[in-house]
Design goal:
With 456 residues, the chain is mainly α. It has 16 helices and no strands. α3 packs antiparallel against α9. The radius of gyration is 21 Å and the shape is globular. The chain starts with 13 loop residues before the first helix and ends with a helix. The model has no long low-confidence stretch (mean pLDDT 86).
Length: 456
């Protein structure tokens, strides 16, 4: 194993460790967002507002399904981090092997089910008829690429669990550039429309996953799994599912509210859907640092719990919270002054009246959302920290709070306030989840302290 292939987060300055781990993850998240951002820019510029709205109308459904995939894989990586922190390398390899078996099973079942049901779901979501064809073509291909999503996320999660947050970023960078090239080739040259955008995303993610696999085989001797370690272990599978399924459900439960909200947005027409799509892509891009901080805290928490160094948990949480608050303030300033300019990247300005209304909507959405970025930072940091500590159920409950908030917005505020109600959905969801997660962290920390005291 290469000397610098892993990073031990159980010793050293928490601030330095978390910042050093977060920065590569941030670049990885940014490049991963290139998949959706580049798709959206090219679709909006070359295919028009209806195609842009068609892709955007699938956003919440995409988040619900793909979020489950990514959440499951992140959860599978936590027991790996525990074993690594405890220096149980044989157990770590068995965890990796069993997570692979589970990922294959999840991928096959999910790909089959959602591909068959996606047309019915889009109909239930009241997708406008003038964009329905775009939505169906795009999301069906994305769903057929679920195995590629599992491949990349399970392998990158294992690599990160051992402290290497740089390598997955490098592969994502390469695949992001490939995604841009394929978008131009499929949409502009081959004129494949939104189907070409979806195919470019799937192919790019598949290649990044394969690169992770080759890297792990060549560089991580500690992960060379023996035939005996490849055997299915029911006990380890239960542990993995106990972490992975709650994290997957956390994303999916949160997304249920987003799906209900999207259904309400769809009733406002294609322009409103396109406005949310453009603003949402900018919002997701600026949210990447919060996701990176959360992923860093999951690994930090997992390793330190595995090493029984509970006193370091609070130190790391304080350091990461300061980073999150500082970035939130900077991001709000950028959104307030330049939010409409950023959203303009996704709009063909030839129809000036339509574009002006879309950009006004996007500016309102981004200003209101960025004003609550501190809450978003706390949601990601506390939730992923709790998950890394081994308490995935609390993450599900936080997702329930977000789901309820978005559902109420979709059922009450959007019919009452129109697009302004849509702008309030994320801030209310983040605030509700934060109000639950902070006391939840204090509870699980006390529980871990009592467990450690009894074991000693």
């Amino acid at each position: 194993m290469a000397k610098d292939s892993t990073r031990d987060m159980t010793v050293g300055s928490p601030m330095k460790l978390i910042l050093g781990f977060t920065i590569p993850l941030l670049f990885g998240a940014l490049f991963q967002q290139f998949y959706s951002v580049v798709d959206t820019v090219i679709v909006g510029r070359f295919l028009g507002v209806n195609a842009l709205a068609g892709v955007g109308a699938t956003g919440s459904l995409n988040f619900m399904i793909m979020g489950f995939c990514m959440g499951v894989c992140s959860g599978f990586a936590i027991p790996v981090a525990h074993k690594f922190g405890a220096r149980d390398y044989s157990g770590m390899r068995q965890m990796v092997a069993n997570s692979v078996w589970l990922s294959v099973a999840f991928a096959v079942v999910m790909t089959t089910a959602v591909s068959l049901l996606c047309r019915s779901i889009l109909t239930w979501m009241k997708t406008p008829q003038d964009i329905f064809g775009y939505s169906y073509s795009y999301i069906l291909i994305i769903f057929l690429g679920i195995p590629a999503t599992y491949l990349y996320n399970i392998l990158s999660g294992v690599i990160r669990s051992m402290g290497d947050s740089k390598t997955p970023v490098f592969f994502l960078t390469l695949s992001a550039m490939l995604n841009i090239a394929l978008d131009i080739l499929f949409i502009v040259a081959f004129e494949l429309g939104v189907a070409g955008a979806a195919a470019a995303t799937v192919i790019s993610q598949l290649i990044s996953g394969l690169l992770c696999l080759v890297y792990m085989i060549r560089k991580f001797e500690i992960l060379h799994i023996t035939r005996e370690e490849w055997k299915m272990n029911p006990f380890y599978m239960r542990q993995l599912c106990g972490m992975g399924v709650p994290m997957g459900l956390q994303y999916s439960i949160t997304a249920i509210g987003a799906v209900i909200l999207q259904t309400s947005v769809n009733t406002l027409g294609a322009l409103a859907v396109a406005s949310v799509t453009a603003a949402g892509r900018v919002n997701m891009f600026f949210s990447c640092p919060f996701e990176a901080m959360g992923s860093a805290m999951a690994t930090y928490g997992g390793q330190n719990v595995g090493a029984k160094k509970l006193e370091r948990l609070g130190q790391g949480l304080k350091a990461c919270s300061l980073l999150g608050a500082a970035y939130a303030a900077v991001a709000f300033v950028v959104m307030f002054f330049f939010g409409d300019n950023l959203a303009a990247l996704f709009v063909d300005s030839q129809n000036s009246a339509q574009a002006a209304e879309l950009l006004a909507n996007a500016k309102l959405f981004l200003t209101i959302n960025s004003a609550f970025y501190v809450a978003l930072a706390m949601v990601n940091i506390f939730r992923l920290m709790i998950q890394g500590m081994g308490f995935g159920t609390f993450a599900i409950l936080a997702g329930v709070f977000e789901m309820v908030a978005r559902t109420l917005v979709g059922l009450v505020l959007v019919p009452w306030l129109g697009f302004l109600g849509v702008c309030c959905s994320n801030p209310l969801a983040w605030t509700a989840a934060t109000a639950f997660l902070i006391p939840a962290y204090r509870h699980v920390r006390r529980k871990l302290n009592r467990t450690l005291e009894r074991s000693e």
